[in-house]
Specification:
It is a single chain. The protein has 6 helices and no strands. With 168 residues, the protein is an all-alpha fold. It has 2 domains: 75 residues, no CATH class; 59 residues, no CATH class. The longest helix has 23 residues. The chain starts with a helix and ends in a 22-residue tail after the last helix.
Length: 168
């Protein structure tokens, strides 16, 4: 039981640190297992209310909040999106699908895309089904799960390929 309590604290912290960025927010075990750190019952309670859960993605949010949002919102939504496309290939869809075995930033793990010059034409020619699926399904579904607007080519704004892939 203690190992489970340790893992509920250690795993989110490691994920947060591996992704880089701000200082992770401390995680409190929610499984009824007491903390290994003794508490002083005479200590005053904090008057600061816990932050509300994220309802849309924020690059400025603490890493622990980002990890919780990924787990509760993006992972279930995108698991379904990928599994609807290819249930066999994405049967084990998890954090590692986009973040790799070392849980790094997707920009470092996913294929780098060349979008300048004839790069888009080349992508479309080499993998037309993947390109179409990514553009027509993955991009808008990921934008929706993040609470963002899909990429708009006329304004060059919104969530698009660059949201997950490094782009030349």
């Amino acid at each position: 039981m203690r190992i489970f309590a340790f893992l509920t604290i250690a795993i989110p912290t490691v994920v947060a640190i591996a992704c880089g960025g701000g200082t992770p927010t401390p995680v409190t075990p929610t499984d009824g297992v007491s903390s290994a750190v003794p508490t002083d019952s005479a200590a005053p309670s904090s008057s600061v209310a816990p932050a509300a859960p994220m309802t849309k993605w924020s690059d400025d949010a603490p890493m622990a909040d980002q990890a919780a949002f990924m787990k509760s919102t993006i992972l279930p939504h995108m698991s379904k999106t990928f599994q609807d496309h290819d249930a066999k290939k994405y049967a084990d869809f998890s954090c590692k699908t986009c973040h790799g075995p070392n849980r790094e930033n997707p920009h470092k793990f996913l294929p780098k895309l060349k979008m300048s010059g004839d790069g888009v034409k080349k992508l479309m020619a080499e993998k037309p089904e993947v390109f179409k699926w990514m553009h027509e399904t993955v991009e808008p579904e990921m934008a929706k799960s993040m609470g963002a607007q899909p990429y708009d080519m006329t304004t060059n704004t919104g969530f698009g390929c660059k949201g997950c892939h490094a782009v030349e």
